[in-house]
């Protein structure tokens, strides 16, 4: 976060006559990139919108370079690089969001399982169920993903607070692959990991649930996805409920995928939190359920498509 001292004129907004309005940057000082393969932005800086054409040299208020990317951005870039040898389809993009791959699992799971196999010591009996659930987990955040996901969330969130937990530190020359691995051979990291495992085992034993869809919910609707800090593109933030479930409070909201052909745009989408805030309305949970089922609906664009909707109505409002 950048803080400015409002008591000093030196911290006042610069006024650039080229800007659209006083106090903002002109367009030529903002990141811009046009490509024929892909550009992406995952709530990080613009630096790695496409690694083949890094964007740098901007005000830190706008974008920073040579800093670690968030796991969500690293997931997006990894996935797009696997797709760029052929035209990217609507299905590819929908899978990118909704197959709910947990990117960080690929980075640290080998070390977690090594710790389970070699370093449990006197806690082996207590921690073996946790280790088994990690091994059996599909490394996704789908409704039917196992309770290993809950353990993984707990462990990673704890380890992210530990200095030097990464075995390979961030290297600006390799932003897509670093940091990586857990430094389980370092005593402070091993100690923190053991403590996190014991705490997670105690917590999960009280849940009484083994499927992610029974744990993360919106009301009574199961919701897939998970914390963006784990590199889950379908990001969800939750708060604990009294019944042990996790209530979604923010995350994927309006999801839209658009392709273009010679007839114009073709769009599918869903409003994940539904349209009406009135619980008695038929539209208060319908799209939430569709999102839960990973169903995107066609979105009409032309006048003919709009009027073809069986629910199409005209309401004339007079003042």
UniProtKB/TrEMBL annotation:
GO terms for molecular function: hydrolase activity. GO terms for biological process: antibiotic biosynthetic process. It comes from the Bacteria. The keyword Transferase does not apply. Pfam families: Penicil_amidase. Its EC number is 3.5.1.97. It is an enzyme of class 3 (hydrolase). Keywords: Hydrolase, Signal. This is Acyl-homoserine lactone acylase PvdQ. It comes from Pseudomonas fluorescens. The gene is pvdQ.
